[in-house]
Structure formats: C-alpha cells, structure tokens
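Notes taken during the Thursday session

The instructor put the following on the board and asked us to keep it in front of us for the whole hour. The protein is 2-dehydropantoate 2-reductase. We were told not to look anything up and to reason only from what is written here. First, the residues (299 in total):
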Amino acid sequence: MTIAIFGAGAVGCYFGALLARAGEDVVLIGRQTLVDAMSFRGLQLEKDGRIEHVTVRASTDPAAIAGADLVLVCVKSPDTQAAAQAMKPHLSADATVLSLQNGIGNADLLSAELNRPVIPAVVYVAVGMAGPGHVQHKGRGELVLGEGPGADAAATRLNAAQIPTEVSAQAETALWTKLTLNCAVNAISALTRRPYGVIARRPEAEATFAALVAECRAVAQASGVTLPEDMLDQVIGITRSMSGQLSSTAQDVIAGKPTEIAMLNGEIARRGAALGIDAPLNRALAMMVGLIEPRRDAT
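Then, after some discussion, the predicted structure tokens were revealed:
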C-alpha cells in the first residue's frame, strides 16, 4: 500500500516524513528542486532539536500517485482545481483522498473535479522549509478529519505514524474556526513580516483581532456555521503559544511566492459580499497582501 502526497511543500513534506519514518511506502509529488535535493541526501526532517534524514521517494510527475490507496492533497488552495485535473487520470478507483489545505471548500472542489468523495482535514501544525528537501517542525501536528468513506482507516494509519488524528462530525466548524484564526493573524504577519508574539504586544492588537473575528463570525453564521464562543481567546492563545511563528502567508511573501490570501481574508470578504454582509477589514487586508505578492500568471 502506498501513500501519495500531492503538493510536497512544508505540510506535505512533514507528514510524508512521519509516515515514511513509520514504515509506510510514501511518494512525494512536488517541484524539481525538491526531487533534486532528495536524490542527494533524502528528506531532512528537523524536529525536537535534531535533524533526521528520511528515505522517501519523490517525483514531479502526477502519474506517481498511480496505485496509491491514500492520497493527501497539500497544494495551495488556488491550485486545487489544477491539482485535481492532474491527479484524475492516475487515481486508483478505491483510493481515499484527503484535503489537507487552508481555507474552506477545497474538499468540495476536489470532489466535484474527481467525481468521488474527498475528506476535508483540518491541519494544526507549524512547519516551514529551511531549504529544498529540508522541513522544520515548529509546533503542534494534529489533524481532524471529516466523516466519509475511508476516514477511519486513514486516521488509524496516521495515528500509527504518531500523527494525532481524529474523525469528527464537526470538521466543517473546525475548518471555519481555523479559517478565522488565519484571517486574524496571517495577513498582519505578512504585511509587517513580524511573528505573532510581536503583533500581539501592540496595544491595538486585541481590538483589531476582535473586529476581524466579528466579521468572520457574521459571515460564518450566515453560512450556517456557528463559531466557538471563545474564538477571540483562541486567536490570542495562538499568538502566545506560537509567539515566534511567522504566518504561512508571511513566509510566502518573504520567499517571493504567491499566497493563499484570496482563500483566507479574501474568502470572507467575497462570501460576505454575496450574503450582504460587509467585511471591510478582511477586504482591506486581502487587497494589501495582494498588492505585495507576485502575480500567479507571472510565475
């Protein structure tokens, strides 16, 4: 049995390394720079103060997922449709597909393109790439899977690889909760290039977080989802527990890569507009990050 990681960035490399270390047959599908680096020294996993070299296959060819019985989709949200189209000709009929992506709606988009159920996964991990083929773990690492065919079996394999995983009927609420966390801190970290702890120490921080959470809550409520009452406390908690962390959006901006901002703050602004709910802070943050990120059609 093979596990394929489609989109081997930081998240994909981290979970792929843990699965391979646990004895699973894993193949990473990513960029040529990753494949070249791994052919030289394997996948470097930096975790708990040490660097481990993990032997795992890597390819740039989407056909490498052929025969995989479990596929973890880890591409950036704007690349979801293209990833589905690349995967579709090679997916096994009985493969379980998980969407380990930021934002909401990715599993539904994959499912529509692939004509099969896709299980959404909420990812709670702080990781980054120190270089091609070198992934750094900075905190947490658990998954919450939605219900669906193959979810329980996938959770069993993930837990066996020391990836804490649960299957929950509340996965959609968890996705919206994580989206709100991202909307509160990611763009600010990207625009200032400051970690969460530095941002939170500003006297204006809590009121700004509260206003962003309020916009997200209104849009979620109108979409049929009730966010947790302690949503603002969760945001503040993240800035304390991961005080030295730059957001993934900030990491993309610093690396000169396109971001997922359109699927984060931009998604709240867009959904809000469709529902007649104004979300000016989310709209402004999405616009400002969009102005400093490289255009996707220029990459």
